[in-house]
C-alpha cells in the first residue's frame, strides 16, 4: 500500500529522474526531508537538486521565477499553505502574469500543504485555493486521491504555467492505495466519484471522502447521491457539473474553505447562470464556519463540514 504522502514523494522522485531541469527548493527539504517528509531521501539521491531555502517565502518564489525564466522547472514546497501569503506578490503579480507580459513561460509548481488537522489552529490549517484561483494565469490543483496526488503532480511539473498544488495534510497518512497509476485523467477534467440520480454533491480535496461517506449513509435510506470530484478548481470543469445536475436536479457544493467568495460559491454561480432550468430546488452550499480555524480538536471537528453535517444539508435539499 502507498500513502497519499508517499505518492507525492514518488512523483517528485520521478520528475527529478526524468528531467534534469527539475529541482526542489524549500525550507528544510534537503537532509531533513521537509516538514512532512515529502522529500525524504531525495537530497541524497539527487545531490545538488533538492535545496534548502532561507525562511523567506518571498525570496523562494522570486528565485524560482527567475530560474523558470532561464529554463528550469522548480518544485517549491511551502511548509504550510498559510505561509504562501508571504510570497503572494511574487505568485500573483509576477508568476501569474509573466507569460502575458513577456511571452516567456513560468513553469513553476508550488506545493501547498493545505487544510486542517486536529489541533493545528488558525496559522497552519487554511485552504488557500480560492484565493489563488481568483488570478488569471495560475492553475490550481486539489487532488483528493493517492492516484491524483501522483499523476497530477507530475502533470503540474510538465505544464508551462505556474501551478498551485494544494495537497491536503489530513490525507497524507489517512489515505492509501494499492499502487500508483499509469494513466491519468487530464488536468481540468472533473471525475464522477459516485453515480446517483437524486442529488449532486460537487466537492474536492479532503471533502470528497466526507461526501462519499455521506452518500453511503444516505444510500441506506434509499437515496442515490452523485458525487463529483472537481480535481482542479482552476480551470473548473463546468460541463461535468452541469451534466450531473441535469441528471439529478439538485446541487450541494461542499468545501472545507470559508464560504465567502469560495469555490462553492463559484460552482453555484455557474450552475445558476448556465443551468438554472436544470434545477428542481435552490442550490445549496456547505463550508467551514466563517471564523479562524480553532485549535481545540473538538471545535475543529465542528468547524469544518463532516459526513454528518453534509447528510443534514442533503436531507434538507432532498426535501425541498
Automatic annotation (TrEMBL):
UniProt cross-references to InterPro entries, sorted A to Z: THDP-binding, Transketo_C/PFOR_II, Transketolase-like_Pyr-bd, Transketolase_C
N-terminal signal peptide: none
Keyword Oxidoreductase included in the entry's annotation: yes
Superkingdom of origin: Bacteria
Oxidoreductase as UniProt keyword: yes
Span of domain Transketolase-like pyrimidine-binding: 2-174
One Pfam family this sequence matches: Transket_pyr
Entry keyword set: Oxidoreductase, Thiamine pyrophosphate
Single GO MF descriptor: oxidoreductase activity
Cofactor: thiamine diphosphate
Alphabetical list of PANTHER family matching this protein: PYRUVATE DEHYDROGENASE E1 COMPONENT BETA SUBUNIT (PTHR43257), PYRUVATE DEHYDROGENASE E1 COMPONENT SUBUNIT BETA (PTHR43257:SF2)
UniProt name for this protein: Transketolase central region
Provenance organism: Chthoniobacter flavus Ellin428
Amino acid at each position: 500500500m502507498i500513502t497519499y504522502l508517499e505518492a507525492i514523494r514518488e512523483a517528485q522522485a520521478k520528475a527529478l529522474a526524468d528531467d534534469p531541469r527539475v529541482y526542489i527548493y524549500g525550507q528544510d527539504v534537503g537532509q531533513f526531508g521537509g516538514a512532512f517528509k515529502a522529500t525524504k531521501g531525495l537530497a541524497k539521491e539527487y545531490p545538488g537538486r533538492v535545496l534548502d531555502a532561507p525562511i523567506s517565502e518571498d525570496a523562494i518564489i522570486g528565485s524560482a521565477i527567475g530560474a523558470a525564466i532561464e529554463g528550469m522547472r522548480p518544485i517549491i514546497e511551502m511548509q504550510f499553505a498559510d505561509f504562501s501569503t508571504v510570497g503572494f506578490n511574487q505568485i500573483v503579480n509576477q508568476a501569474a502574469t509573466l507569460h502575458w507580459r513577456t511571452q516567456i513561460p513560468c513553469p513553476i509548481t508550488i506545493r501547498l500543504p493545505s487544510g486542517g488537522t486536529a489541533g493545528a489552529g488558525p496559522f497552519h490549517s487554511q485552504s488557500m485555493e480560492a484565493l489563488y484561483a481568483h488570478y488569471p494565469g495560475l492553475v490550481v490543483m486539489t487532488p483528493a486521491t493517492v492516484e491524483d496526488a501522483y499523476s497530477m503532480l507530475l502533470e503540474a511539473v510538465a505544464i508551462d504555467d505556474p501551478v498551485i498544488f494544494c495537497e491536503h495534510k489530513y490525507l497524507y497518512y489517512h489515505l492509501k492505495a494499492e499502487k500508483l497509476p499509469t494513466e491519468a485523467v487530464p488536468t481540468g477534467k472533473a471525475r464522477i466519484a459516485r453515480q446517483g440520480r437524486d442529488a449532486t454533491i460537487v466537492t474536492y480535496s479532503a471533502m470528497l471522502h466526507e461526501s462519499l461517506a455521506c452518500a453511503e449513509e444516505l444510500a441506506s435510506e434509499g437515496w442515490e447521491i452523485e458525487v463529483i470530484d472537481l480535481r482542479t478548481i482552476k480551470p473548473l470543469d463546468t460541463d461535468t457539473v452541469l451534466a450531473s445536475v441535469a441528471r439529478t436536479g439538485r446541487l450541494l457544493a461542499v468545501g472545507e474553505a470559508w464560504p465567502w467568495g469560495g469555490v462553492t460559491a463559484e460552482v453555484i454561480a455557474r450552475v445558476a447562470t448556465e443551468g438554472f432550468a436544470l434545477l428542481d430546488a435552490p442550490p445549496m452550499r456547505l463550508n467551514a464556519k466563517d471564523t479562524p480555524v480553532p485549535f481545540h480538536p473538538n471545535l475543529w471537528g465542528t468547524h469544518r463540514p463532516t459526513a454528518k453535517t453534509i447528510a443534514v444539508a442533503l436531507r434538507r435539499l432532498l426535501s425541498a
